[in-house]
Amino acid sequence: MTKRLLVVSLLLIAAVITISGPVAAADQTIKIATQSPLSGDQSAVGVDIKRGAELALEQMSAPLVKMGFKVELAPFDDQANPDTGVANAKRIVSDPAILSVVGHYNSGVQIPSSEVYHTSGLANVSPANTNPKVTTRGYMEVNRIVGRDDVQGVVGADFAAGKKVKSVFVVHDKTAYGQGIAEFFKKRAEEKGMKMLGFEGTEEKANFDSLLSPILAGNPDLVYFGGMYSQAAVLFKQAREKGYMGIFLSDDGFDSSDAVKIGGQTLLDGGGTFYSTVSGPASIYPGTAKFVADFKAKYNAAPQPFAAQGYDCMGICLKAIEAAVKANGNKFPARAAVTKAIRDMKDYEGITGKFTFNSIGDPTIAKYFVIQVASPSPAKWSDNPVVETLDIAPPK
Amino acid sequence: MKRFLKSINVPELLRPLGQLIFFSLGSTIFLSAIALVLALILDRTVVGQTLFERLNVSLYTYTLVNLPQVAIDGLTIGFVYAAIALGYTMVYGVLEFINFAHSEIFAVGAFVGVEILIALDTFGILADASILMAYIYLILAILGGMLAAGGLAVAVERVAYRPLRHASRLVPLISAIGVSFLLQDVIRLVESLTTGQFNRIFPTFGNFDSRVILAKMTMGTTPITLGMSIKSIIVIVSAVLMLVALNYLVNATKIGKAIRAVAQDHPTASLMGIDVNRIISLTFLVGGMLGGAAGVLYALKFTRIDPFVGFFPGLKAFTAAVLGGIGNMTGALLGGIVLGMLETFAGSYMGVFTMGAAGSEYKDIFAFSILILVLIFRPQGLMGANVAQKA
Predict the structure, then answer these.
(1) What is the pTM of this model?
(2) Predicted local distance difference test score (pLDDT) of residue B388
(3) What SS3 state is found at A39?
(4) Is the Cβ pair A197, B360 closer than 8 Å?
(5) Is the ipTM of this complex over 0.90?
(6) Given 3.10.20, 1.10.3470, 3.30.200, 1.25.40, which CATH number is that of B2-377?
(7) Second-level CATH architecture of A2-146+284-364
(8) pLDDT attached to residue A14
(9) Under 8 Å CB-to-CB from B80, ≥6 apart: which residues?
(10) Who among A205, A209, A262 is closest to B344 (CB)?
(11) Does the pLDDT of residue B102 top 90, yes or no?
């Protein structure tokens, strides 16, 4: 008897759903696109950005579903290639169901692709792009939840100040990236009252003897290098061999296990070696424990860097779409409304931080990390401990 | 045994040693004097005051205290340049053209040596090698680099230069530039196919990284230690050994006599029963071996190499050869030492003398300006070019 009742009630429910379905039907599918490298040598990170977004969609689309929408993920593979990214972007903007984009991994792909989003008024939330130009173009549509390259120098200087460093010598590699970071470091270090014993650019890759003479003579508390590990590690090694015992500090260009292959034990001697970066290991973020567990359960693998940021970007998109839907009387919102809702969002509680965007789309507070080199073995590079986590506002 | 000992031409062994010591001391004293005079002059000016404010020490003291270390660093790189420069100068001596592929022959030597050591390291042999064994492995790597580079130099001569020997002089020069590019990309190709890496890193083993402390000084409040790493000593000692051996080969043996004869006049030399082609191959072999050994020593000293590692040392060694007088072996020694010293002195002191406006990044500009000046007043180079007379 009860069985029959159950069957009848189920049939009734099914009937209600099929009847009510077409009523709310037209334009009821909401799509959110992801763009990241799903193939090629950067696909490990790219696929996990997509997976993070996918997981967020599953866990947080309930409010929109309740309002009668079908929420779908539209993953695109930008192949870490600007041309592919732009071509995908054109396909994305031509699909009216897509209300926002989570992506990209490479700044070089994000910058041209976001030009397309900008002309179509489609919102983009970036989980990983750190180039200042991503936001400094001032596009309403473009936002990111990570820090900026030009803040890293400041992070380094603040870290040095925390270490009671009185004098520094700054070296950079004369590239836009390395010199840029070094100049920001210098400016901040001088503001903090550190003595600037030298500021030198060099393309030298092997023989740092003559550059080291003024460094050793000045014997600064800290030597800063703006650039890539392939120069920095050689410089640090030679400095240590000549008896310099202070602290070495570099930027995220140093984040490669090859750095210890070159420098070995010398990086650990004396004051040690540190580097700054915008993306810490997932375990460092307070809210990620549940995410990591869910991620492992679903995909049977530990999340790569930026997967948690992918999760947060999707969360922000969903929240903003929900707000835009509500503002539009529970109807399918315009893209402009979603764009505005993202920018207007206050204190979104993500797993990698609390996000509010400023007028150009940078997070008002971004997290930066200073990591210490802890082992001379290249295999243990990813175990390097985070020694400092800083929350810093983007530059004006 | 007695006859063997008697056959050794002792003055020819001592002469290059004497020359090396004389050149090293001479350029050190000369450049030190210039640096000190400049320091004395600038001490009273704003330059000295700026330094005093920054380091609490007078410019003169600063210069003086740093001198020994700067001289040692300059000598080390100078000997490397000299060893490479000999390859350029020997080829110029016999063929009168610049073998621009020599910088890649140097790079191949460096790669072969480093790959041998990396292979030993992956088998775990290097990690627990005793000091003695570490030196044996290092010598093995140097010999490997020498053989590979020497063989390659001979092959390049046979394939790319010999067919062009009677063409106009610009033709083998272009061929050499072509070979240079080709070899760079061949190294890159081989490395990317086998190891998939662009940078190769000299493994850490033995006691090469430790440092012999010669003296400790204080400058103002800063302690300065004067020292030399073991590997710098290895570089200098091996370079000196090679230079002496080469000098002996060219100046005191029968083969050397043949090389000198070929350098003077190909047709006449062949009339005297000298196989000119063989002697030219031999010249490339010897020059290439020196370059290859210099490559391994360079990798030992500076740790990291990549397929383009040969370009700058090659260019500087070529400059050194011209500075000393191209075609002249003693000139190449002098040129290498002087250029290495100039560059290190300029890099170390320019920053201070110009109040940080032109730091060590401009050392090459300075060194090359001196080269231009020397060539304006002595176009044949410091020692005079040894250009063979051609009919």
Answers:
(1) 0.75
(2) 46
(3) coil
(4) no
(5) no
(6) 1.10.3470
(7) 3-Layer(aba) Sandwich (3.40)
(8) 60
(9) B235, B239, B294, B297, B298, B301, B313, B336, B340
(10) A209
(11) yes
